[in-house]
TrEMBL record:
Organism of this sequence: Araneus ventricosus (Orbweaver spider)
Any one GO biological process: cell-cell adhesion
An annotated Gene Ontology molecular function: cell adhesion molecule binding
Family matches, as Gene3D superfamilies: Immunoglobulins (2.60.40.10)
Descriptive protein name: Ig-like domain-containing protein
Domain Ig-like, first and last residues per copy: 56-146, 164-237
Keyword Disulfide bond: yes
Membrane topology value: Single-pass type I membrane protein
GO CC annotation terms, alphabetical: cell-cell junction; plasma membrane
Keyword field contains Glycoprotein: yes
Localization: Membrane
SUPFAM superfamilies found in the cross-reference section: Immunoglobulin
Source superkingdom: Eukaryota
């Protein structure tokens, strides 16, 4: 049986209960509706202490800014664990049950405590520690959270207009971490590098003698070891007309 304690500013526990079933866990530690649809991502290694387990398993998790997810720390039903707690990278216990970063009793695991992130931010990165008292001693496991910068298009006009008979550059300014891979499309067809229009860095060079008119799309793709992201800037267009 596991006892979950709530602390306020590191002082005596405000609430203590022993969840026996998921329904009882919900009564003692209410779930928020915003958790529906949150993503779980797999990682790489096992837990540190043999009686503490992370779900998804592993000590390293990576997400993009704006992602929402949760990590569950649980103790075995026969471990005799008490005082299951999550700690932030600052070393402070996470005790709130609402907000962008909070803890909740696991709905499907009466011996688990979830660490929930909604709209994760870059400053949330760091090491999060799950601890419990087992056999009279503190047991710990942890994971390292890495947060990558999501793809954003900045300083790129919604409509870029060129005139027929003149050369023109279509801009696509992209920010992300890691750096993105950029590809260009015209009217839905991929533009291959080395052909006209010419692709130079993150700009598309249209030459009046060769390039057709149409709608041009900049697609950004970024990937790391455990996830990837792709976004389009579909409103970029070359609306060309006769020169004045």
């Amino acid at each position: 049986m596991i006892e979950i304690l709530f602390f306020y500013n590191g002082k005596l526990p405000l609430v203590s209960f022993n969840p026996l079933t998921p329904s009882e866990a919900v009564q003692g530690f209410p779930l928020t509706a915003t958790k529906a649809g949150l993503k779980r991502f797999a990682s790489f290694e096992g837990a540190h202490h043999r009686h503490l387990r992370l779900e998804p398993t592993g000590h390293f998790h990576a997400f993009f800014t704006g992602d929402s997810f949760f990590i569950t720390c649980s103790a075995g039903p026969n471990s005799g664990a008490t005082r299951l707690t999550w700690q932030a990278p600052s070393g402070k216990d996470i005790t709130v049950s609402t907000g962008r970063v909070h803890v909740e009793a696991a709905l499907d695991n009466p011996y688990g405590l979830e660490l929930v992130f909604e709209d994760v931010k870059y400053e949330d990165r760091g090491t999060y520690v799950c601890s419990a008292i087992i056999d009279g001693r503190e047991a710990k496991t942890h994971f390292v959270l890495t947060v990558y910068l999501s793809i954003t298009f900045w300083g790129t006009p919604e409509h870029q207009v060129g005139k027929e008979g003149t050369d023109f550059m279509v801009l696509c300014n992209v920010r992300s971490d890691p750096s993105p891979i950029i590809s260009w499309y015209v009217n839905g067809s991929l533009i291959l590098d080395g052909r006209v229009p010419h692709i130079r860095g993150w700009t598309l060079h249209l030459e009046s003698k060769h390039d057709r008119l149409g709608s041009y799309t900049c697609r950004a793709f970024v990937s790391h070891s455990s996830s990837s992201q792709m976004k389009d800037k579909t409103s970029i267009s070359c609306l060309c007309g006769s020169p004045s």
